[in-house]
Amino acid sequence: MRRIMFTYFTSDPSSRALCSPMLLSTFSHFSLFHMAANMYVLWSFSSSIVSLLGCEQFIAVYLSAGVISSFVSYVAKMVTGRFEPSLGASGAIMTVLAAVCTKMPEAKLAIIFLPMFTFTAGNALKAIIAFDTAGLALGWRLFDHAAHLGGALFGMWYVTYGHELIWKNREPLVKAWHEMRTKNTGKGGGRSN
Length: 193
What we know:
By secondary structure, the chain is mainly α. The protein has one domain: Rhomboid-like fold. 73% of the residues lie in helices and 6% in strands. It has 8 helices and 2 strands; from the N terminus they run αααααββααα. A two-stranded antiparallel sheet has the order 1-2. Strand 1 and strand 2 form a beta hairpin. The longest helix is centred in the middle third of the chain and has 26 residues. The two termini are 33 Å apart. It is a multi-pass membrane protein. Pfam families: Rhomboid (PF01694). One of its GO terms (cellular component) is mitochondrial inner membrane. It is found in: Mitochondrion inner membrane. Keywords: Hydrolase, Membrane, Mitochondrion, Mitochondrion inner membrane, Transit peptide, Transmembrane, Transmembrane helix.
């Protein structure tokens, strides 16, 4: 675990071998049904999240959410000793759902096949978090509960604090990133573009 954590946070080329699968997993699904369910949820909540964040910020949050939820899933699987594939797509979708439900807790939602039963977005988010927490604690293998929880918590955090801390202050972060990349390129540690 220490080796994985260390290589994840270094600019060592071997860290790319760990980060790339987590980013690419944002677009991976177990089955056609899994993909259809995720795309339906994304389609249902995409206009709300894009109107809240804008296109560029949405893409940044979605890709970050895929990496973060995959990482949470990997950590949970290492702790429990279950070495199964981790896919970040559901975690990234859960980020979108949690962000919208956090910002609009009184919005009315319904299940596609049961439109007569409506509930608030805030209650739906609480139920989803409770379900995934129980699934993680009890070892259910129906879903990747750790990835769902990681994505939901990231979505809630981002719309509550992250937007102010990161997006509104992104210029110093981008400048620091470019300076770090320039230093690495100058030392022969990076690629020139």
